[in-house]
Amino acid sequence: MEDAQNERSDAEIIRDILGGNVDAFEALINRHQGYVCAIVTKKVPTDRIEEVAHETFVRTYRSLETFRAKTPFKHWLASIAVRCCYDFWRDHYRRRETPVSSIREDGWEGIQTLLVDGSANASNGHAPNREALRVLRWAMKGLSAEDRMVLTLVHLEEYTTAEAAALLRWSVPKVKIRAYRARKRLRKVLADAIPDR
Amino acid sequence: MEGKKRKVDRIEKALVQAYRAQTVPGLPPGWRDDVMRHVRRLGAEAQEKAAKPATTPALQKILFPAAAAGGLVAAALFVYMLTALPGMEQDLFALLRQDPSGLLVTAALGL
Hints:
The complex is a heterodimer. Chain A is mainly α. Chain A is 70% helix and 0% strand. Chain A has a domain at 1-97: RNA polymerase sigma factor, region 2, helix turn helix motif (Rna Polymerase Sigma Factor, Chain: A), CATH 1.10.1740. In chain A, helix 3 (25-41) packs across helix 5 (73-94) and helix 4 (49-62) packs across helix 5. The radius of gyration of chain B is 38 Å and the shape is elongated. The termini of chain B are far apart. Chains A and B meet through helix 3, helix 4, helix 6, helix 7 and helix 10 of A and helix 1 and helix 2 of B.
């Protein structure tokens, strides 16, 4: 039974689901959960990955009727996953209660560590530098949800502007401008935290 | 002394490398079942909705166009009466005054 599901194309499974066989959706989850997880993992905090991945598949199910087989299902699913991450941050920012002063202190300490112990040179080739990730998370807090998403896709994950535009459902010029400004803002946040002497 | 721009470049590079070096953890075993439970619930709700006889929308489909058409006919009739039958408004007014049930209306109007 599982083998039969594996042999079917995404489009066939979707037709089956739309025909009333809700259980067939499990085949889509099995096939794409790793891909969705990879998209979501680096974009939201670790303790929220499950929740955002869950929301991605539920939204996918809800909008299956609007899926047109012109584009591969995987691309369509990726845009939903990115949208879920974006919505997560928008919601998060709306409810943010952390005082700005404490955020600044956190980042300042991290940057000091990175500069002093020389770990800003690389992540020693194996495990990611925890301090660098902490500084990155801190610096990202100074950006809007839009800036965060576009910066993540274009600068950190190296998507082309056209790919990022397709994922975010924005125009290419908007992605270009936003990505440029977001990076500038991130650099300013970092520069402001570096002590003058 | 190292310039600020260079320091920012150095830190930015380290941040990008650290970001890319992160590993992707798998989702826990029960996660898929949770999603499927949610999806099945949504599916059942959708089926329930589809199975319900849609009386209200059907009624609305008939009622509103019928009311609009009736309103238009009444307005057209009223305009016709005023233009094609001269003195009609006086006759109507007289009838209203003579009619016992119209007394209250005329009294309310102070006539």
